[in-house]
Design a protein that fits this description.
Radius of gyration: 24 Å
Helix content: 55-70%
Order of helices and strands: HHHHEHHEHHEHHEHHEHHEHHH
Strand order of the largest sheet: 1-6
Strand content: under 5%
Largest sheet: 2 strands, antiparallel
Number of strands: 6
Number of domains: 2
Distance between the termini: 54 Å
Amino acid sequence: MEIRPLLMCFALCVVYATSKPTEKKERIHHDAPLSSREHDDAQGFDYDHDAFLGQKEAKSFDDLSPEESKRRLGVIVEKIDGDSDGFVTEVELRAWIKKAQKKYIYENVDRQWKDFDVNNDGMISWEEYRNVTYGTYLDDPEPDDGYNYQHMMARDERRFKMADQNGDQIANKEEFTAFLHPEEYDHMKDVVVLETMEDIDKNGDGFIDLNEYIGDMYNHEDETEEPDWVATEREQFSEFRDKNKDGKMDREETMDWILPSDYDHAEAEAKHLVYESDSNKDGKLSKEEILNKYDLFVGSQATDFGEALVRHDEF
């Protein structure tokens, strides 16, 4: 893989983000919805299927017979039961839903994996990643394109070490996913905040003041009149971002800004699935309880046909 164009693309994205004076740069990371469908069990379980399996996988179940759908659900149940105690808890179900919703991320990592796993040992070391990504720049400390690749490499190494939870300088698939998509992992939040602050904190005082906050979103070089959203963001900074009213954002305030504590859709769905399926009301689900309510978790030819009849009746 040729990494130079990849790095150039990154650099151009930075330039592009600052080249449109009226276009707002978005820094806030929100969890994506579990499904594009409305959550209304009275009309069908499409939302629950999308939430439980991910939208692409849920669609594939609609072509299966009820028997095959149940069989595959049984296999999934065993995967969800992380401690193999024969039961699925809300915590295990939430973790599964979160993972199902990140399938597109795992697919992205799979596409890149072979380019960095140079020795094909099923792991990616920091040395492998560094050599593939920065190898051509290591011999040229002052490239003529204006970008500081030593600085970029140092940031990548810091993030790699944060993702490498056992500290062996080698990343397995999950650790490499955390490296490439740190905003998706709780233990990576600190490095996401740190990198954001480094990008915005132009005077290097370790804080983000109002001018830096606005300057990150809005290009002042153009002489056109400020768009209305800029004035709104000034108010947002003073009223909500700067919680202690000292005129700047510290690390904690920056985290509250870019990684807000949103409503946990995965937790809510896990609670819903347990409530609807827990026939003996012991707060956890056996495999039998889940299979008895299989149409809540997954689709099949039968449920797809039934929902089609419901839609037909509406007309």
